[in-house]
Structure formats: C-alpha cells, structure tokens
Design brief:
- Keywords: Nucleotidyltransferase, Transferase.
- The protein has 457 residues and is an alpha/beta fold.
- The protein has two domains: 8-343, Alpha-Beta Complex (Spore Coat Polysaccharide Biosynthesis Protein SpsA, Chain A), CATH 3.90.550.10; 350-452, Hexapeptide repeat proteins (UDP N-Acetylglucosamine Acyltransferase, domain 1), CATH 2.160.10.
- Helices cover 22% and strands 24% of the residues.
- It contains twelve helices and 24 strands.
- The chain has helices at 8-22, 50-56, 90-105, 120-127, 175-181, 184-190, 210-219, 261-264, 282-290, 350-357, 390-393, 396-402, and strands at 41-42, 60-66, 83-85, 88-89, 111-115, 140-142, 146-147, 167-168, 195-200, 223-229, 239-242, 248-251, 272-281, 301-306, 316-321, 335-338, 361-363, 369-371, 385-388, 409-419, 422-424, 429-437, 444-446, 451-452.
- The strands form eight sheets. It has an eight-stranded mixed sheet with strand order 1-16-10-13-9-2-5-6, with helices on both faces. Strands 19-20-22-24 form a four-stranded parallel sheet.
- Helix 2 (50-56) packs across helix 7.
- The radius of gyration is 22 Å and the shape is globular.
- The relative contact order is 0.14.
C-alpha cells in the first residue's frame, strides 16, 4: 500500500480490519447487540428550522458517494453515468438539482464527488458539461483503496489478468478519512465550510434540505443520519438499532448472523432503515479523526466477491469495507432523523430502473422525481413491486432489448412479476397485480397497446 501511495491513515485502517479478519472476527452484530429503536425526531417536526438553514447555507456543501461501477447491472462504467430517464444520467440529475438550488437561493453551494480509482476520469469528463458548478472548490477527491484478500491465505490477492482488479474501494465508510488525507478537509474548514450533506450518487431523492441543515445548526448535531420507515422492499437494507446503553448503530444485512436473518427482516421490530443520506459537522469530524489516528474504527464488512466483478467465474476474494452510516456509532452525539420516503429513491437493480423510467414518477422543475399524483395506491403511496427474471433482465442491455420502446405504463400497477423471456411492445399498460410467465425458450411478445391486469394475466 505504501508503494501504491496510500497514506498512513489508510494503511492503519486496512491493518485494523485485517487484524480483525485474522482473529476470526466476523463483523456480525447479533440481535442482543442491535436493539430496536422506538422513537425518533420526525421531519414533520422541523417547521421553523429553515430560518437557520438559510443563514448557514453558505457554510454547507454537497458530497456524493461515487466509488462504484455499474457492475450489478452488467456495465463497466461509473454508476452515476447510467442513463436513468429522458436520456439523462444520475450525474445529469444531480448537476441540474444543484444548479436549480443555487438559482433559488442565489448562493453557490459546492458539489463534490468522492470517486474511486475506477470512476474518477469518466465522472470528471461528464462534469465538464456543467461549468456553472465550478467555484474554486475541488469537484472531487479519490478515496483510498485496499488490496482484495485471498480467503485461503489472508494475503493480498493476485490477478495477473488485470492487476487493477486486485484492488477495491473500501466502501463509503472511508469518506471522512479520505477527505482528510487529501487535504480537502482542512481546505474546506479554512474556507469557512462547516456542514456537508452526503448521499449516494444513485439516490435521486437526496437533495440538500434547508430545514435539516437548520436542525443540525440549532441542535449542534455532529452527525445526522436520515432514516425512513421500512417496508417489505427494504427488509434487506441496513437498519437503525441501538446498543444496551442507548447509543445508535447501523446494522447491514451482511452483518447479521445467518440464524437471525428472519429477525433482521422484521420491519415491525426494526422500523427504520438507513437512507445513506448523512449530514456532518466538519469540525466535529476533524476532532473525531484526530482521536482515532486519522481514521474511524468502523465495524467491518467482509464481502466475498469474484476478483473480477464482471466475471463471476473468477476466484473468490474478500473485500474489506465499511459503511459511512456506521459513523453514527463512532462520532459522539450522533443522531438520526425520520424523513419522508421521497428522500430515498435509489436505483440499484434493473427493476428499480424500470420503475423510475415509467409513469410512476414525474420530473419536477427542480429536477426531482416525485410520485405521479395519478398513482392509485392508498396513502402512503409507494412504487409497485416489480420482479424481473434475472436470467433475462439482470443487466442493463437485457432490459433495453426487452423494453425497446421504454417502460410500460405502471401508474396503476400494484405488482409485476415476469418469468422467462418476454419482450414488450409500444404503449403497453400494466394495471393491478400482473404475473407474466413464458416457459418456452423462444421469446414471448406483448403486442403494442396491450392492457394487462388482474383479469387477463
């Protein structure tokens, strides 16, 4: 790692995780260690905080986690450059949201990306289309990288076919250490910035909210996690919990013992999931880093993946990662806030992308996606449940090939399940609960203008 140019805090963080791996630590959190949280401050209680938010917005910036490639959808490019809707990528939406915010506030709110060595060049090239976002603050920084680990020897994995695949970003839990070791944290503090709003680049609902900023300021919160009520579709996402002393913590699916997975997915017991929208007070983060040798000792996540993520037949390795939300258990005084579901609109799978591309959502003038008012669900309105056969819809190009005319109308759809190779024509409408099954090897065609509902599917 020294030869690679990684700074001492990154090496210390790697060794911290590696020692845990060597001693047999699993990174797992049992139900006895992760107790449910019953009550949180609600976003609806924040009326009046916008006054402080407007006063302090000059001290705020926006940071997007952008270390991942779109490999889960079969694309070897930064996830932020995936076409989402109307020919626009995640990056296009982010840039336009920030531009609109700046126009409305008549203030310049910097936008910054935490890139990985995989994503930086393409992301910066795409950002050149938005010169209005430049203001002298660096548009990005590159997070640290860790060697992937051979599970048999616990030594760094070797892959001569593509040596770059021997390395991985250590998860977005690395954000504050990377911000510090690049020198950007000190530069931001010297320039008068005190607050940062962090979120995933693929969350189209995550925008800087003046009320939440005001709440941070007035209550002197060092770190704030936005959480939302869990639904069945969120049952495998990281949930908020607390320890026996009442300290908040985040438990990810990969940190749950296999025997307790049913309990992990109990949305009545664990009511709140992590949106990965975080707010941080930069001076408090700097102080916490100083007290921990320049990195945050977050709970580890040991992910087993193929050494080449684009080829599942390649040897399995261990990627040592951590989640930014786990900072809630390390930063003294950290808190959580329940927010509306609209602040969480991620696109992780092809099913998510199909829903976002459909008429379930519409785009507002501030370039946010909001639920179509024609959506028929009872309150609180939610998106339909969609399951597409991964054999035929697992990758982005598969989705394009089987929906060549775009997404069908889903505004009146409650659920859609597609099994087998099914290709959709133009102006197809799905209503109610629909299941389409094609057991044949040859593709099934849904003709143009077809309306499918509970009665004919």
């Amino acid at each position: 790692m020294r030869t690679d140019g990684q700074p001492p805090p990154a090496i210390a963080s790697f060794l911290h995780f590696h020692r845990l791996l060597e001693t047999g630590a699993t990174g797992l959190l049992t139900a006895a260690e992760a107790l449910p949280v019953e009550r949180l401050t609600d976003y609806e209680e924040l009326d009046g905080y916008e006054l402080s938010g407007y006063e302090y917005v000059d001290q705020a910036l926006i940071l997007k986690f952008n270390g991942g490639l779109g490999t889960s959808m079969g694309l070897d490019l930064p996830r932020c450059l995936l076409p989402v809707r109307d020919g626009l990528t995640f990056l296009d939406y982010i840039a336009r949201q920030v531009s609109y915010l700046q126009q409305q506030l008549d203030r310049h709110v910097p936008l910054m990306f935490m890139n990985s060595f995989h994503t930086r060049a393409a992301t910066l090239a795409a950002l050149t289309a938005y010169p209005e976002l430049r203001n002298g603050i660096a548009p990005d920084f590159v997070q640290h990288r860790f060697p992937k680990i051979d599970p048999a020897t616990l030594e760094p994995a070797a892959w001569s076919a593509n040596p770059d695949r021997e390395w991985c970003p250590p998860g977005h839990g690395d954000v504050f250490a990377s911000l510090d070791t690049t020198g950007l944290l000190d530069k931001l503090l010297a320039a008068g910035y005190r607050y940062v709003f962090l979120s995933n680049a693929d969350n189209l609902g995550a925008t800087l909210d003046i009320k939440i900023l005001g709440y941070m300021v007035e209550n002197r919160v060092p770190l704030l996690m936005e959480v939302a009520n869990r639904t069945l579709s969120d049952r495998k996402g990281g949930h908020l919990a607390q320890n026996a002393d009442g300290g908040l913590l985040l438990r990810e699916f990969a940190q749950c013992p296999e025997a307790e997975l049913d309990g992990f997915q109990d949305i009545r017991r664990y009511q709140f999931f992590n949106t990965n929208n975080l707010w941080a007070h930069l001076p408090s983060i700097k102080e916490t880093l100083r007290s921990h040798c320049g990195f945050l000792p977050l709970p580890p996540i040991f992910n087993r993946k193929p050494v080449d993520p684009m080829d599942i037949s390649t040897p399995e390795v261990i990627q040592m990662e951590s989640a930014a939300g786990s900072s809630i258990s390390v930063v003294p005084g950290a808190a959580a806030l329940r927010v509306p579901r609209i602040r969480f609109l991620p696109v992780k799978r092809c099913e998510d992308l199909l829903i976002v591309q459909s008429d379930v959502y519409r785009t507002t003038r501030n370039h946010r996606l909001v639920m179509n008012p024609k959506r028929i669900n009872p309150q609180p309105r939610r998106a339909p449940t969609v399951h597409l056969d991964p054999r035929y819809y697992g990758h982005y190009r598969d989705l394009e090939a089987r929906f060549p005319f775009g997404a069908p109308s889903l505004v009146r759809c409650l659920s859609l399940e597609v099994e087998g190779d099914v290709r959709f024509g133009r102006d197809v409408v799905i209503e109610g609960n629909v299941r389409i099954r094609n057991p044949k090897a040859s593709p099934m065609l849904i003709p143009d203008g077809t309306v499918l509902d509970d009665t004919n599917s």
